[in-house]
Amino acid sequence: MRRKSLSVIVLTLAIPSVAHAAIITSVPATATSPAIAVYVAKPHGDGTYPAVLLLHGCEGFNGFEAVAADRLAMHGYVAAAIDELGPRQPDGACGGERDGSIAEAVAARATLAWLRTQPYVAADRLGIIGFSMGGNAALNLIDPIGPPSPVPAGLRVAIAFYPACEGRDGRVTVPLAIFDGDVDQITPAAPCASMVRAGSAAGKSLQITTYPGATHGFTVPGPDRTFFGQPIRYDPTAAADSTEKTAILLAQYLGKT
Question: Largest alpha-carbon pair distance within the chain?
């Protein structure tokens, strides 16, 4: 199925709010990254705010990330949701030979650097929340497979929902929280549990919450569905609990506004 553009998705949602402002803009191209479409929601008012970057799954930017960004803005954060796939991959990055998380990590690094230059962002108070492929991209930034890479400036915390943790040693460069489900057959929970144990034994700050009966994509509202033959079910209890824990983590590491 072909993806809609970021602007079409946001206009379709037409989310009303008096608590924040939102724009669609573009992160300029760099030597390592093309221009990146980004939806930015921020609290009303002058001053600077901590910022949270939202990273999408292999199907690309959709209404879920836009709603999440709006909710974060209503709680005092600048929230930026990128559309890394953009028009280059209208059919998404699911099931192809290309590992989309590598390109999304590059885009994430460029977007974090761009956020630090914005006058409304507290440049040393940045966080990342990634979902599925976006969770993998977040891990690529803070616990890469292969040669180490520098942590993005200003990044204080990373949160990954149902990522793939195989091959990672847990030696994260910023505190990490993982939320996953114990019946996830797309990115099973066991490798992430092993990663967290290894990283914790090495003195790193990691935590994991694995929800009984939860599948991949348990945070996304909608009817039961399948993805590459595997079940995906919305779990309102796990979604609410992980949302609450995420809010606590953001306040802990980025500070309340």
Answer: 48
